[in-house]
Amino acid sequence: MAQTAITKSVTDRVLKENRIRRFGAIDFVILLFLSLWGLLILYPFYNAVLVSIVPNTVYQRYQGFMLLPPAVTWDSYAFTFKNSLIWTGYRTTLAVTVLGTAYNMAMTILCGYALTKTAMPGIKVMRFLLVFTMWFSGGLIPYYLQIKNLHLTDNLLVMVLPMGVNLMYLLIISDNFRSIPASLEESAKIDGANDWTVLIRIILPLCLPLLATFTLYYAVERWNEWYHAMLFIKTSSKWPLQNVLRTIINDVNMLATMNIPGQVRPDVQGDSIKMSSIVVSMLPMMCLYPFLQRYFLSGLTLGAVKE
Amino acid sequence: MTAQSLAGLRRARRNIWREIYNYRWIYLMIIPTLVFIFLFKYVPMYGIQLAFKNYKLAGIAASPWNDLAHFKYMMNEPEFLPALRNTVVISFMRILVGFPFPIFLALLINECYTPRYRRVLQTVYTFPHFLSWVLLAGIMLNLLGSTGMVRKVVMIINPEMGQNWNFLYDGNIYRWVLVLSDVWKEAGWGTIIYLAAISGIDQSLYEAAVIDGCNRWHKILYITLPGIVSMISIQFVLRVGYIMEGGFDQVFNTYTPPVYEKGDIIDTYIYRISFVRTSGVDLGFSTAVGLFKNVINFIMMLSGNLFVRSLGQEAVL
To 10 degrees, what angle do helices B225-241 and B100-111 make? Predict the structure, then answer.
């Protein structure tokens, strides 16, 4: 009797702690802190939108904290969309993202599968050669000279070809391929499948979520590309979006006089143009991210937490 | 050598060719990546010899050797040592704030009452990680600049400070702006690895602890933290390995000449002496500075990884 009573009280306590936990003061503090941090993350983006839609003259005179726009104008967006560099930038970035991601994934999948063949002659050396590039590099100048030697300057391919594989992604993907039971592959081989069939018909279908995650990571990397474009692409109509954005942020007046001479109005100057360009180039990410966040958030843990 | 062992050797050799033939498709699969690392990683490594040469337009091989002149000059170059010091100082500041914060945040997220809200928060926290520093620098410079919202608010609280607004032009403040904006961008992403480690902790430990009368604080202190301490130490060692990486993207997109003294890092320094400065810096000198950085990087990462491996954990690299 007494024992069951004790057991029952213990069970109750566990249940209470785990499932029907009361919402206490500490919970409130934690929730408050987490929410504030969330607001702190979101506010700069909201502020960017605000600055882009409030007329510049109103914004400059405004005193204090702006929570809602006192007046709204779309002039800065009209101005931004009239800027041909934004459009060519979008075009370049889209092309580089699609082409680059396909190239990255193809290389990574093929090499990742090859790295699972630990009995293959020479694979240890090849693996070492690959991993070593994560640890040591030639540095900026030798790399710059090599790109020049390959005649990739002012060529859109400079934003694709030099970014073949991300070694970190490669190793994670390869580890996941290896965790697929070897018996699956062996039985397919007995049925007459070759390596290509095994990879395409067995390995890849089993790893689809993983592949989706790393496709997204590569796509984000290519979308955010600016460094190679800054170093190697001199023609402004070939710039990707990020470099157009850089120019606008660094020198909005240059842009204002360059594209639409005589049409610069005080309302659409400076900050509002910068912010509207930022919002325009952030838009695809803002729209896609909430829907794809499941894939975005899973990748890091796939490779990292292993015992 | 007897005829028999010769025949055995020949058979073994035939076997190795046979094996290679069996793997022919796999070799074909790995070749593109090998070509890629050859062209874009190993050929530049061959170019490191430029660090010991005076660059001539004729090419790397044709340039004459120069007796370590670049390394001797490096110590006298007025901007090199400040850049090196800034890199280390800024990296330490980043570790000091940016390393513990994600752990703290992960513990709080783990204690968060409602799972659904937790998901929303995580989505928000990780969003900036996927944006480029080009874009975020634009937002940041506007927010903290002389026309920005932060100044407008400070104007009300402390008009004097608002009048003499130099947030982005004072080197000491700029360093903290770098560190804190990096925490802002990456902390949410950093929590993921710790949350995964926390979710790997055996739930029965918590149940047992409750039976033994543990409160929430005890559970964090005696179960959750010990459960992730190996992950924390691995992350720490690997993070320290990146001490020479000052964060090129962020610094390059936000710094201005007034903060060069406190905010210039090795990578931005290399970029400037190679491509911005017009007067007489030998490309060989930039290569030498790059080599200096990469060698330290290499030693730090290697020792970090060996240390992690010696703990019996699989290193990330």
Answer: 150
